[in-house]
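Hi F.,

I've been meaning to write this up properly since the lab meeting, where we talked about keeping a consistent format for the predictions we share between groups. The idea is simple: the sequence comes first, exactly as it goes in, then the structure tokens exactly as they come out, then a line or two of notes. No screenshots and no reformatting. I'm using this chain as the first example so we have something concrete to point to.
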Amino acid sequence: MSASTEPATGRTLDSPLDLMVAEYLRVLASERGASPHTLRAYRRELRGFADFVAKRYGSDRKVDCIEHTHIRAYLGTLYDRDLSKASAARALAAIRSWFKWLARAGRLEQNVASLVATPRLPKHLPRVPSIEQMNQVVDLGGEDSGSWPARDRAILEMLYGCGIRNAELTGLNLNDIYWSNEAILVRGKGRKQRYVPLGDAAAQALRAYIAERSARLAADGATKAARTPALFLNLRLRGLGKAGGQARLTTRSVGRIVKRIAMLRGLSADVHPHTLRHAFGTHLLEEGADLRAIQELLGHERLSTTQRYTQLTTAQLTQVYDRTHPRAK
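Output, unedited:
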């Protein structure tokens, strides 16, 4: 068998398992529209498993010769490396997804990965700031953030006011804002699209930022190369003028911006963009929004994912019960 090379990593694919993994990753990218983050995660987990099988059972081992005991043995090596149950569960999820595809594609007669139990994980509910705390953070916004206050204020308004993911925020373009309909077009996971309402506060912050955005681009020299579709730009307009460069803000930068502002407002250091998304869903539920409507707004495929937010409001329900039920006193 002649070896080939994986374009994304330069890795030589010289085993049957390597080739099967590479084919599955191509399917994820081209047919399922997986994000770069998802592809990196699946590549890491499946390569780790393929390397384990090759080292312990031989590099010529074919996928239809893998048993569920081999997968369990691999999870055991992860525990031996002091990895958490959550890490092992992520690895198993990737392996299961791969084997499910192999079975559907007719490469396997049985999906042996389905016989391996998922590690029991402790339930950690995300800590969500209160409505008052979020109002304080967003209202004061990026006044003293030290970078681009108008942009940072708009970022906070969009994350909390629209409940979008970090990657969805950074992927927004100017023409994704539908001012007349008071909505934005969001491109979610798996190339799925949805419209999310644009509230008055978020719209006001966006207009202020877009005015400054236009001024900065003009000051940089409004050349053809400087016309970028990206809504949120990095501070120094890095990448503008280069081939394909858009000066688009990265998810990592958004994470730093949110953490810095949250800490300036007295919140904990573990606040990140997804915390604002959790706050969006939780506060909607606390104020009486329908769970199905929250599911649509958040872009959740399954209602069970949205139902996690019902666990976050147990304390509030207890207070209501204690205050109103005649037998609670």
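Notes:
Residues 36-57 form the longest helix (22 residues).
The longest strand covers residues 183-187.

If this format works for you, I'll send the rest the same way.

G.
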